[in-house]
Every structure is written in structure tokens, then in C-alpha cells.
Amino acid sequence: MSRSHDQRPRSHKPLSAYVNSDYIAALNALSGRNAKRRIVVFVEGYDDVTFWSALLRPLETDAFYFEVMLPSSASLGKGKKVALANNLGERLGEYMIACVDADYDFLAQGRTPNSKQLCDNPYVFHTYLYAIENYYCYAPSLSEVCVSATLNDRRIFDFEAFLAAYSRIVWPLFVWNVWVYRYGGYKQFSLMDFARIVAMPDVDIHHPQARLEALRHRVNAKIARLQKAHPEGKKTYKPLQAELLSLGLSPETTYLFMRGHDVKDGVVLPLVQTVCERLRREREREIRTTALHRTQLQNELAGYQHATVSCEEVLRRHRGFCACPWYRRVQEDICMFLDKVRGGAS
Fold it and tell me: How far, in Å, CA of 328 to CA of 346, rounded?
């Protein structure tokens, strides 16, 4: 009996690897002329599903709805490379798009292969900020995060002023970090190196200036070393700085464009935890002061502690950053895309 059927080359690609925008369009057509059309949205990881779903839902219309998913049901791989892998860029279209973190690729403005795909592919949308974690750290929303975590509305720290001051100090070193990424010297000044220099995990919220001055000293020292190691930067550093400013960045918002995990874990979360701890202690002191007897004290303390939430959890779940201009810009990009799809389908 012939065994030739066992010797045929087998494809290791899952069926999902062959699905493209045209295939989704055909499925939409089968649903009927008046049915809502599905647009498949590939994202990088599980946390991204929540973020992008919340961003996209308000933009749905009577004609379109989004289905957000990971790019592969055959593996647990995550990240931008996976989200844009398997020739996905060629498979994208009006009914299949990708939504990813910008990283430094937005700032590179098409000068690297990843950046070119991010900036030039009309079916790839991105955060503009480095990652979704940067949105969670949006300064105007952090006081409300503390209120939600502690149920104490007293403002004891100015997050906006601090992060603006922090960003102004970090800005010139951040430009250098983008510079080495753009010109191929990132191994000499990696994102990890940058994160170590600008981390501020133990700020005294009542006297933050001392830590800011220490940061300024570290930043200036590193800049001096970079200028010595890269004299060619004299010609290209200032034009790059001007270009970043023209893209909408500012020295006061540097923290939004640094690597998101580093900003959250090295600066913002420690600050939020410190503020929340002070607010919780303050509220518990009030309960101890006003309680009429021991039973009431125990009941009130237990009720308060049960009602409070981990500030880390609130930081990860809050939606106060929806007012961020960059978040609205992402939504505007999606709306323009939907207008084109609507026009092409009419």
C-alpha cells in the first residue's frame, strides 16, 4: 500500500495564519447587508485586551464592532513581534488591524524596520506613548487613584508638579537614550541603563526636592560621559531634540515616553504607595479618635480596611487617563480609519 500521503510536506502554520482582512470581509458579507461588520483587532498581550477594548468600544457604530484578541490561538506568545508576526502586516486591512505599544518606534519615525511598519502601515495603530503603562501613570489621574484606593480625598501630594519637575530633569538624558536607539548605539546606553539612573523609588513626599537634585546630578554626570563617548552627537543631538518637540513631546511630559514598566515600577507606583499609606493611616487615626467605644472602633476599622483596595490594583484598573490628549489622538486615528472603511463600503 502506498505511503506517499504520509510523505507530503506538512505546514506548521495554524489555520489562523492564513486568515486575512478579505476573509473577515467575506464572513461579514455572509451575515447580511444590514448586519454589523466585525473588525478583528490583534494586540500584544492579555493586559492589552482590556486597554484596547475600552479604547475602541466607544467608537463602535451601528455599522461596525471590534473584536480584540491575541494574534495566535496556537501559542501563548505575546509582544509586538508576535502581534505583527506571520506576515501579519500583509494580512491586515479594513477588517483586520493591529494595535500595539509604540515603544521608541514612534519616535524613530520610520528609520528602523519596526518603526517603518508602525508609522507607515495604515492598519497598525499604536499608543504614541511608550506603552499602555505610561497611560496608567498619567499625572492628572493619580490623585483620583489614591482616593479610590484609600477612600480619603485629602490632597497631600502634587503628582502633576512632581512629575513635571522630574521630567524636565530627565529630558536631556531621555533625548540621548532615543539618540543611541536611532543611531545604533543602544548597547552602550540601554533602556535598562537609563532606567537605573532615573529611578526614584524612595521619595519623601513632604520634601521631594532633595531626591530631585540627586537625580539631576546623576543625569548630568551621565550626559557628560555620553558627550565624551559620542562627539558625533554634537551635530545630531539638537536636531533630534527639535524633532521630538515637533512630534508633540515636551520636557514636562518625558515620563510618558520612557519605558512604561520603568516609570511605573521605578517612580510612580512607589509614590502612589507612599501617598496611599499616609492617607490610610490618617483615616484610621480619625476613626480611632471619633469612635465612642471599643466595639465601634473595631467595626469601623474592619469596615474601612475591607472597603479599601490595593493601590497597585487601582493603578492598573483606573480609567482616569482617558482625558490624556494622546489617548484621544489614538481614538481620532481609529475614527478616521472607520470613516475610510465606511466610505469604501458604501
Answer: 27
